Amino acid sequence: MIAFWATAGVLSAAAAILILLRAARAATLVEPADPTTMLYRRQLAEIAELADRGLIGAAERKAAEAEAGRRLIDAADAPARTWSANPSRAPILIAAGATPALALLLYFVMGSPGVADQPFAARLAGWTRADPRTLAAPEMAAVLNKLTHERPRDPDGFRYLALAEGASSNPAGAVRALKRAVTLAPQRADLWEMLGEAMVYAAGGAVTPDARQVFAETLKRDPTSVPARFHLARARVAAGDKAGGLADWRALLADLPADDPRRSSLAAAIAEAQGGPAPPPRGLSGDQLTAVRGMVASLAGRLAASPDDPKGWIQLVRAYAVLGEADKRDAALKVSRARYAGRPDILADLATAAATEPMR
């Protein structure tokens, strides 16, 4: 690493010297004549040529020649502007030499020059030998990616890889893994169901045409699939068939057991589609609450990268309110209010979202 920095410093200094030498040489050259007048003379010749070929009329020729002639006179009367080189290049040379030296000094003070290289292959081997419970989600995804290359005919390997990619905030990777899984085991409804949900997540919550097709394949193999029925009904509502989508949702709600925790989310979707207030979810299990928090964190990250999304801010404020995270709710509310200070309709929706009762 020290050799790298020394080499980089020498190359930087050499580049600076070459630039200064070229600048010094340019300063000694005679400045060429101003090309502006030659340009307008060429324009006058071209106008005459076009007129001789019959491409422009006499009136157009006269107007064009008058304009080009006026510009030629202005350019000829304008005072000549000469360029002069800076006679003192010593400060530039000192700065060019000091910059890599200062960078090297900062590296010695704040960096870790004594740390050995950590090639990815060696780290991957260590993760493979480690207890899976000690690995972070990206590390687990790397291990599973290696295992799927070693066992490319195992659909469950790709299923676990998709879970790890999803936990690593890589929905595109999860979709790729699940597409491979359904190719290996096209009869498994659970893999089609996971693929559809991953595609919806990757699309920011939208049920794309590809996702609708995947959920349709899911229902061919398992007509009772709750996620497939839910998202297909949501797609109908989004496409303008609110009556049909609501009918499908109500049928799904009637089929769910009374103690099914998904009933609250489904009832909230129905109420929202009907234009009423969405009741907060209740009775979430620990795993469900973790999943919800993960989705809310993903939404917050997306808004940090692309903040021009008023519906997203309203959803984020409501989510923090439902989760009972008052500090995060107030922070998101402050940022969104400042961003949409001139939109009273959005401010009203934000206030309503912030007033949502937390779940119990």
CATH class of the largest domain: Mainly Alpha
Give the number of domains. Answer: 3
Per DSSP E runs of 2 or more residues, the count of β-strands stands at 0
DSSP strand (E) fraction? under 5%
Helix content: over 70%
- Average pLDDT, rounded to a whole number, is 81
- The CATH superfamily of the largest domain turns out to be Tetratricopeptide repeat domain
Order of helices and strands, N to C?
Answer: HHHHHHHHHHHHHHHHH
Radius of gyration: 34 Å
Low-confidence stretches: none
CATH topology of the largest domain: Serine Threonine Protein Phosphatase 5, Tetratricopeptide repeat
Shape: extended
Structural class: mainly alpha
**Number of separate helices:** 17
Distance between the ends: 55 Å
Tell me the major beta sheet.
none
Overview of the structural elements:
The protein has 360 residues and is mainly alpha-helical. The chain contains 17 helices and no strands. α11 packs antiparallel against α12. The mean pLDDT is 81.
Summarize the structure.
The chain has 360 residues and is mostly helical. It has 17 helices and no strands.
List the helices and strands and how they pair.
Layout lengths: L1 H27 L6 H18 L5 H20 L12 H21 L9 H10 L7 H14 L4 H13 L3 H14 L4 H14 L6 H13 L4 H13 L3 H14 L6 H12 L12 H20 L4 H14 L2 H14 L4 H11 L6
Helix pairs in contact: 1-4, 2-3, 5-6, 6-7, 7-8, 8-9, 9-10, 10-11, 11-12, 12-13, 14-15, 15-16, 15-17, 16-17
Main attributes of the structure:
17 helices, 360 residues, mainly alpha
